[in-house]
Design a protein that fits this description.
Helices cover about 70% and strands about 0% of the residues. The protein contains 20 helices and two strands. It has a two-stranded antiparallel ribbon with strand order 1-2. The longest helix is centred in the first third of the chain and has 30 residues. It is globular, with a radius of gyration of 21 Å. The N and C termini lie far apart (about 55 Å).
């Protein structure tokens, strides 16, 4: 076994190496810990928006776990042009959540899944022509979109901190016990993220949710009935929720898939620069985005939500520089096994919405600040300020005013009035193209 100067197996730093199992297990578990909350939470949020039953919520969580694993394995072990062949963890993305929630509230889950197939096809096309399309998405555009994603999610997080839909039905929305569980969760996240090191810091969201869950349990906010009723093994069946293709919803999600493809380019670039000391090849970028689109399309048939690269796991790679695919395959294997166990998914579905809100509001804040940093790195010039300022003003402004597009056909309201991200993205792209360069 080859070793580095500090005794670590050098195979860990080789994508095709064969490291020892004793090193693979803890490093793989670290990626599972970093990803698990991000995988599960969007499914819980969408379930609430679509009014799904607890049993249907469990299936949605299972599908998310299952297709997170499959999408990751495709990226690690590419087939022809499908897959990047890079060390990344894929999963359901928060970037899609604002648009998914808007479609879910206006229509239903089948409409989301139908639009997801259309959006996945857009991602595949983007992947094929990635070299030509990248010019439309410089950092000023991508950063603006990322900021709008974070801003649009704040109201969702606060609603969950107050108890969410379940609390509204029970008549105790905004009660002290819901806010208490949410603030305990948020406090633990802040402490772990700023006053600790190592795995506790990297898993601060998970730590916050565990402590918040215990607090919520003591407050009587947790119901274990779904766990006792769940089976130990279940194979997610295709077309359980059905598919519905609404053109306006397809357009909205298609735009988001295009924007998210740019984020994937950024994540893959960070992975290769931080872990492999090189820029990604166009072939790798193309294969990664194509795989992301195909995984989302296939996942829609089973209730899985859109997949994307996970920035938090990219961050782990840039810190420890472990790029061996066996480590990532082990993490995917754990998520794959969890996707077949309803007991596990049902336990996750018992997490109170107040706890989810307390944990995710910090995630949404970091999403916003990631966009701010991206724009700041480019320099806050007059041109940049115009692009960012007008895009956010229109995006947030139009969607904040109810019925602001009431005089237009319904499809206009669905495409442009449902999510601030879509308006911000289109505005930023157009302004970046027409405004004179400095």
């Amino acid at each position: 076994m080859n070793a580095t100067g500090d005794g670590r197996d050098s195979a860990l730093f080789d994508f095709y190496g064969k490291p020892a199992p004793g090193q693979v297990i803890p490093l793989g578990l670290q990626h599972v810990v970093a990803a698990i909350v991000g995988v599960v939470t969007p499914a819980l949020l969408v379930s609430g928006a679509c009014g799904l039953s607890v049993a249907e919520q469990v299936v949605l969580v299972q599908a998310s776990l299952l297709f997170t694993a499959l999408a990751t394995l495709i990226q690690l072990f590419p087939v022809m042009r499908i897959g990047a062949g890079l060390p990344v963890i894929m999963g359901t993305s928060f970037a899609f959540v604002p648009t998914l929630l808007a479609i879910g509230v206006r229509f239903d889950l089948p409409t989301i899944l139908g639009a997801q197939i259309a959006g996945g096809l857009v991602a595949v096309v983007f992947g094929v022509f990635v070299k030509r399309l990248r010019v439309f998405f410089p950092p000023v555009v991508t950063g603006t979109v990322i900021i709008s994603i974070g801003l649009s999610l704040y109201s969702t997080a606060v609603s969950y901190m107050a108890g969410g839909g379940a609390a509204r039905a029970a008549g105790d929305f905004g009660s002290a016990k819901h806010w208490g569980a949410a603030m305990i969760t948020l406090l633990v996240v802040i402490v772990c993220n700023n006053f600790t090191k190592g795995i506790t810091k990297m898993a601060s969201i998970l730590c916050g949710m565990v402590v918040g869950y215990i607090a919520a349990l003591c407050m009587g906010l947790v119901d274990f009935t779904p766990v006792s009723q769940a089976s130990w093994f279940y194979l997610v069946s295709p077309l359980r929720f059905g598919l519905r293709f609404v053109p306006s919803a397809c357009i909205s999600l298609g735009i988001m898939f295009m924007v998210n493809a740019v984020q994937t380019i950024g994540d893959l670039t960070s992975t290769t620069l931080g872990g492999m000391d090189r820029e990604p090849e166009t072939r790798e970028l193309s294969g990664g985005i194509i795989a992301q689109g195909l995984a989302s399309m296939l996942g829609a048939l089973f209730g899985g939500l859109p997949t994307s690269s996970y920035s938090q796991n990219v961050g782990i790679v840039t810190v420890n520089r472990v790029v061996n695919r066996v480590v990532f395959a082990f993490a995917a294997g754990i998520l794959l096994a969890a996707g077949f166990i309803p007991k596990f998914a049902s336990v996750l579905a018992t997490i109170p919405q107040a706890v989810i809100g307390g944990a995710t509001i910090s995630v949404f804040a970091m999403i916003t600040m990631t966009g701010v940093r991206m724009i700041a790195a480019e320099g806050l010039t007059s041109r940049t300020a115009t692009v960012v300022g007008l895009a956010l003003a229109l995006g947030v402004g139009v969607t904040s005013v109810a019925d602001s597009l009431a005089g237009f056909p319904d499809w206009v309201g669905t495409v442009f009035g449902s999510s601030s991200v879509v308006i911000a993205a289109i505005t930023a792209i157009l302004l970046n193209l027409v405004l004179p360069k400095e």
